[in-house]
Design goal:
Blueprint: H1 4-33, H2 37-63, H3 83-110, H4 114-144, H5 148-157, H6 163-167
Helix pairs in contact: 1-2, 1-3, 3-4
The chain binds hydroxy diiron-OXO moiety.
Length: 172
């Protein structure tokens, strides 16, 4: 059985994951209308992943005697100056999410809720990988600079970059 403090904290994270999904969906749409097909597909996939993160939390809360709360969401940014700005925003957002997961882990320890603490370890590893991926992408973008040919190749190759490949090998 989850304490009220844990349920509230997990519900806060459910909202953050839902907002993450919307943020990446908005990025996908921006990229798609700019003709950046590869980046758009990558963002659509990211958005789906965030929804999965949200659903995993929802199931956990409901199955352990809590009630997952589906709330209103903050509207995401829908346009960006450059694709570099967009990926910088993605990176900052992932750092923010990691901080939020850390806070959640801290609360689970304070509450002596070791089952929730154990459940959250998946999110801890996931955030390490997501931050690593965002960093890898930013490094690539900095290498490209203003080179149009570089952007073409980046847009083509970003599809191959997944969370798991970013932290192990480098396919780009
Ligand atoms: Fe849910 O991992 Fe990104 O935000």
């Amino acid at each position: 059985m989850l304490s009220n403090i844990i349920v509230d904290a997990l519900n806060k994270q459910i909202r953050i994951e839902a907002e993450s999904s919307q943020i990446y969906l908005a990025m996908a749409c921006w990229a798609e209308v700019k003709g950046l097909e590869g980046i758009a597909n990558f963002m659509f996939k990211q958005s789906d992943e965030e929804r999965e993160h949200m659903l995993k939390l929802i199931k956990f809360v409901n199955e352990r005697g809590g009630h997952a709360f589906i709330s209103e969401l903050n509207a995401p940014e829908v346009s960006f100056k450059t694709f570099k700005d967009m990926f910088e925003m993605l990176f900052k957002h992932e750092v923010f999410v990691s901080q939020s997961i850390n806070d959640l882990v801290h609360i689970s320890l304070q509450e002596r809720d070791y089952a929730t603490h154990n459940f959250l370890q998946w999110y801890v590893s996931e955030q390490i990988e997501e931050e690593a991926m965002a960093r890898t992408i930013l490094d690539k973008i900095n290498l490209i600079g203003d080179d149009k040919g570089g952007l073409y190749l980046f847009d083509r190759d970003i599809n191959q970059l997944t969370v798991s490949t970013a932290s192990s090998e480098n396919p780009m």
